[in-house]
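Justification of computing resources. Each target in the renewal requires a structure prediction run like the one illustrated here; the chain below, 692 residues long, is used simply to show the kind of job we budget for.
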Amino acid sequence: MLNNAPRTAEPMKGKSEFLRAALIVAIFLASSLPITNVEAEPVTVCCDSGPVELLLLGSSSDGSMSPFEASLSSDSEEAEITDSVSITQPMDIAEWSVTVGATESAEYPETTWDFDIEYEVVNAGGVTINASVEIKIASQTYTGFTGTDGLFLPSGKGTLSIAIPVESGTLPSGAQITAKLTARWLTFSVPGADAGIIFRWGSSDDPSTLTADIPIADIIIEDPVTEGLDVYISVVVASPWGALTVANANELSVRVNNVAVTGDPIETMSGEFVRLTWTWRDSQDGEHNITIQTTFQLQAGTPSKTGSAEFTITTVDDGGSGGGVFYPADEPLRSDGGGSPLSLVIEMDLEKIDGQLALTRTTTLSLDQEIAYWMRWGIDNIGNEDPSLSQPLRIFSGYGGQEDNVRNKVIDEGEINQFQQQMRNLAVTYMNDGMALEIEELIGNDLIEFERVDFEIDLLGETRVTPHPLILKITTLEVLPENSDVTLLRNFIIIQPTPIWSEMDIKIEIETSLSSTMGESSIKGTDEISIIHRRGLTGEYITIEGENIEPGVTFTVFVRPSSNLLNTPLSLNLLILVLLGGGYWLALRSTRNKRRSALWLELLLAPVVLMTYYLAYDVFVVGAIAAIAVAVWLLTAFASPYRKDSGPPPRNKISYPQIECPACNQTNSITSQERPFRLACSGCGRVLKIVE
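Resulting structure tokens:
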């Protein structure tokens, strides 16, 4: 037995060592993988009821309310009551509504709401009005009055204010609040013709409001997700205005352990609401607690709402440098509610090929912020058939060997190639529906009308799925009709309820060959875009520019291309060379024996002609000015006096007999045949008598 014991113990010891090693390896592998903390539930940390100023928007029959000034339009809505209308019973003027309440029911306090609407009394000394505002909160109704005796409103503009006492109550999730303005009776003072009172709202000039004390949003902190020492902190903003709340809130910030988290968050949808995810770098590994605090302020001047929650996380110091970016499972938002800037550069070359006018166009879109991140995420998810994806991403098909590339947080060369190839057929849906860019207006024609269409993605050196700018380049080749108006560019941004674009910069550069011309070029619809048309020695050059253009601006860029020899730069070059060169040569030849000082001075007419050519004046204008310059030179040559040293051309001389003065020996010519003839000496003046 003693001899067998060692032999029995050795296998058991080896097996134990193997299990221990396997356990260590398993622990190591588990610690190296991303850890998602699923134990904790999302925590609602904000926000209780608070004062908010709701702007009155929309028509009198279908009005709405919003706390954001960005919702105001440029034109006011109106409702008018004239002296011809006899109010014998209450008359509804306008009604506005808004859906509030987020994820659960909330309490609102007993307080006084204030209704303020802009008005104007016209063609009357004033008006006495008895008006009321009815507030409905879910099933509860509260009413405020101007007073039974009425309120006098003087002539001109002012603000009608009505206070509405509201009792405390419960606001259910998704409840609707309505405000209805009613005129019970009114009387005009010293009315003239067409006397009336006009109520206005909905614009920056007439910002009529309802000030209420209600819960406007829930702020929910989700359980953090860790990857190495990177901690992804997600905050859900549950608001009836969705992304607009995120974009227009006066403050929405996150702090971890009382230290502010910097950087722009990644925005995705969370049901009907918006999720914002920040990346925070932890300084220690292992399991420990962190406190996440949010601060939310919807409008300036209103109280800030703060809430916090404590979470247990586990981080691993894997030796990485960090700086990772959260990679959402859900499709990112294309807009934060405020929109991204757009930079558009278009380069065009017009030339005559095989007897046809061919236009090569390179359209370069520089994209940044949310729309750029959405595109990067979409390219990395090419071929993803998840039904929750939007159609612009879902329409792309996969490709062979993609398993290792899709959703690996890096945009691979194969994904780029697939995206560029499939865009030739899918660009209309992708850009129109996904990017809110009407591609037909952007590139000037339907895709099927082009001889060639190519798409190119430039990641600007960053292949990761991260908020980094990128460039989308579209190259087209098309044949243009001659001597007819062609639309090169039209307003191409599709206005969205939640704007994808905040503003845009446009720069278009057009160059023609010597044998082609863009003819008359113009911009209609706006003065925010300038156009400069120039001619050079090798062709025409057109530059079109505009900065900080509002997405809703309407504009159209027209040209009239032609290869007619009478209009091309080549014919103009020859015309100017022949007229100016030949005309001035004739003028110089005509003044060989004349003074040329005036002609040299008039040589300044040549730069004037060249300037009209450079400034792209019409061909007939350039030709007429050149002809006038030549005519002036020829007239000046004809009228110029002879030089003193040359005199006029010699005439045939007449021979006269001569006589010498006996007194001074001066020779004098006898110019008359008359005899006797008396001649005064040209030397001494003595009178000489000629008898023969």
